[in-house]
């Protein structure tokens, strides 16, 4: 589905001039099944989608976030969904984050 190297961070896989590949990527966006569907679908789906598509992006737009100690060693966290058992998007240790409001934004 995604080609080889799915455990590697390769953002170029989404940048293709091949019309067939572009159609496939667009079709993937129509398959949001995390919440189920029909009468047995998740009752929190609407609020969750609101948070994912509106609240989180507006927080990221209005604030700058950075690690308090960016040079600290980073070890990948454990991810039960990954075939390799580790994830680049989680960390087993606590990290301090500095949050500053973006200047010039309402």
Q: What structural keywords apply?
A:
106 residues; 2 helices; two-stranded antiparallel sheet; extended
Radius of gyration: 18 Å
Strand content: 15-25%
Q: Please outline the major beta sheet.
A: 2 strands, antiparallel
- Order of strands, main sheet, comes to 1-4
The structure class reads alpha+beta
The helical percent reads: 25-40%
Mean model confidence by pLDDT: 77
What's the end-to-end separation, in Å? 42 Å
Tally of distinct domains: 1
Overall form: extended
Series of secondary-structure elements, N-terminal to C-terminal: HHEEEE
Number of separate strands = 4
Number of helices: 2
Taking pLDDT < 50 over at least 5 consecutive residues as the criterion, the unreliable ranges are none
How would you describe the overall organization of this protein?
The chain has 106 residues and is of the alpha+beta class. The protein has one domain (11-101). 26% of the residues lie in helices and 18% in strands. It has helices at residues 19-28, 45-62; strands at 63-67, 76-78, 86-91, 97-101. The strands form two sheets. A two-stranded antiparallel sheet has the order 1-4. The chain has a two-stranded antiparallel sheet with strand order 2-3. The N and C termini lie far apart (42 Å).
């Amino acid at each position: 589905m995604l080609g080889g190297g799915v455990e590697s961070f390769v953002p170029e896989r989404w940048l293709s001039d091949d019309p067939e590949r572009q159609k496939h990527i667009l079709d993937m966006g129509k398959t949001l099944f995390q919440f189920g569907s029909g009468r047995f679908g998740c009752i929190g789906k609407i609020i969750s989608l609101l948070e994912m598509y509106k609240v989180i992006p507006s927080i990221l737009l209005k604030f700058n976030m950075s690690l308090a100690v960016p040079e600290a060693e980073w070890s990948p966290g454990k991810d039960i969904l990954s075939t390799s058992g580790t994830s680049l998007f989680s960390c087993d240790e606590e990290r301090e984050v500095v949050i500053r409001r973006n200047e010039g934004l309402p």
